[in-house]
Amino acid sequence: MNLLLILSGKIVIFISKILNLGNGSTWPGHIALNIDKNFIKNIIEKNKDLKIILIAGTNGKTTTGKLIQTILEGSGKRVFQNTAGANLLNGVVSSLTKFSSISGKINFDYAIFEIDENTLPLILKNIKPEIIILINLFRDQLDRYGEVNAISKKWKDALASLGSKTSLILNSDDPQIAYLGDAIKNEVKYFGVKGRKLQNTEHASDSTYCPKCGNKLSYRTITFSHLGDWKCSKGELKRPKTDLENFEFYPLPGLYNKYNTNAAVLTARELGISNEKIKKALTSFQPAFGRQEIIKYKNKKIQIFLSKNPASFNQSLNIITELKATHLLIILNDRIPDGRDVSWIWDVDFEKYLENSTEISVAGDRACDMALRLKYAGMDNFKTYESLKIAVTEALKGAHDNEILYTLPTYSAMLDLRKILTGKSIL
Amino acid sequence: MKNRQSSIVNRQYYITIGWLYPELMSTYGDRGNIICLAKRCEWRKIGVQAINLNEGFSPKLLNGVDILFMGGAQDTQQGIVSKDFTSRKIEALKSKIEGGTPGLYICGAYQFLGKYYKEADGNKIKGLDIFDLYTEHPGVGKERLIGNIAIKTSDGSVVVGFENHGGRTYLGKNLKPFGQVIKGYGNNSIDGTEGAIYKNSIGTYLHGPILPKNPLLADYLIKTALKVKYGKDLELEKLDDSLEEKARMAIAKRLQIAI
């Protein structure tokens, strides 16, 4: 049965490629799962030498996965990863199909799967991973997922029944994530980032209350949002001691990428790779689709910063402010991968970052909502477009050859934008 | 120059917005409502400040508040707020609402003003019992009511927004709904009502930033606050709301309704 499913999956992938429908990264899995619920379990059992690394969290899954892949490949390992964004069960199955032979043999050392927040408990029923990396939990797509606290509770329950073989790599600075390492029998390593003394919390904070007892948390230092050196004001829970805070080389700018890199480095160390090899591999790192990716278009440069929730949007704004952006295109969609509710844009600190000297274009299905947000942030230098293609063309017209057009799209908007810029779709 | 005189006049007016539990009851961009109220006052040269009424605030602070706002929350957070509402605080809030202080209470806050909230597992949480309504969750696994929504209020204007709630709210006989559902679910997806209005307080499921896309509602709160505070009807200066109108039309088009 497996053989047939793998074969049909491969045919779907092939046809989607030929017809330029994207890489066929979810369909084959969808079909296989409908026919055989135990597809994942069965194929994994056949490949006992394949080590699996799972990555979950609201922001940074794709970049962290790509960083780990780069490091592992730099030490001669054979690695594959599920396609960015195809992080539900069907995406995992599709990638297993793609990288296995027709008989179900997978000739790789490592599989890295980025996993959607809600899918993590499900996948743990099917897979015994070598390592699980949990990066952070921010507000994201509440219309789909429910609440941050609810997800963290589901994770805690799922992790309680892990086999002892699995190690955890956790973010010490995110209270909800660090708490997952509390009272667990598995090996746990923590990564964090050195913060600054607390002034005013940015607005988009999610868990300023103790995940264990519900009392208020106090922060000695903060990096961004609710990440920092935290401590419960009443109980004994506090930021655990970190195993890695600073590495000698960071391939991408931005505090959030410091977290992603630290998570990847700590994972690589756990797998026995030397600092020297890690550093060497990281110097050749290329960003993932839409994650600070630079694309040349009509002789001009466009850089894409996927911005899908208040935390990632604030971080994108922070970076482009440091880069002294002169031209900015914001694209807001409300399709299912973006979350149908766009209320979150009011939690983004536009007031803090944007200046009236930047030329701003706004596009996407919910361009009007974004325009309104900018108006109430005191901006009056923006133009709103119904068509993304026209928005890109017009925004580029204003940019000189040496200026970069910075774009901040939501998820599906990023895919639309890349399609315009490269002529191909990803998913 | 036309506005100069009125702006001098307007400087006499001052509004304090009281944001109840911004750290706990703020899940869906609720801050947008505070930003909207403040900006629409500023643009008219009406003095404005927003004060945060966080966990442990003194009930005396409520005395100086002209507009009250409280947003939605995650369940755990709602539990903390519930504990923080001492009987003195409940009395203070009740007397503000009974005295006509305008307010906007969204989602979790709206449910909280009622008699009780019955959770999915049957557990009953007592409400503040200021609004004659109760809310019940239909049970684990029952669908949440999620999506874009448009309602018609009693004055005939259309309010648009987004709703996302598990609880179903039922109004008492004498409590007026905030509006009738045109598209969406509303209080309970059965009786066609949405929200509730009592004195000058509005409870609604249209969550997060309801005011920016509904400037009429924002202005109603400001106007009412001035009336209660200064005892006279003041005509608010008209603002250019063309962008707001465009954003409203975009939702109307999406919902395939005329507004």
List keywords for this structure.
heterodimer; A: alpha/beta; 16 helices; globular; B: 259 residues; alpha/beta; 6-stranded mixed sheet; 14 strands; 30% helix
Question: What this model shows, in words?
Answer:
The complex is a heterodimer of chains A (427) and B (259). Chain A is of the alpha/beta class. Chain A contains 16 helices and 15 strands. Chain A has helices spanning 2-18, 27-35, 39-46, 61-74, 89-99, 120-124, 142-145, 148-160, 175-178, 255-270, 275-282, 310-322, 350-353, 367-376, 388-398, 411-422, and strands spanning 51-56, 79-81, 110-115, 131-134, 167-171, 188-191, 196-197, 217-224, 227-232, 291-297, 300-305, 327-331, 359-363, 382-384, 404-409. In chain A, strands 2-3-1-4-5-6 form a 6-stranded parallel β-sheet, sandwiched between helices. The longest helix of chain A is centred in the N-terminal third of the chain and has 17 residues, at 2-18. Chain A starts with a helix and ends in a 5-residue tail after the last helix. Chain B is of the alpha/beta class and 259 residues long. Chain B has helices spanning 2-10, 31-42, 75-84, 87-98, 108-112, 215-230, 242-255; strands at 14-20, 47-53, 67-70, 103-106, 116-118, 124-126, 133-136, 145-153, 158-165, 168-171, 179-183, 193-194, 196-198, 201-204. Chain B is globular and about 55 Å long. The interface between A and B is medium-sized, with 32 and 33 residues.
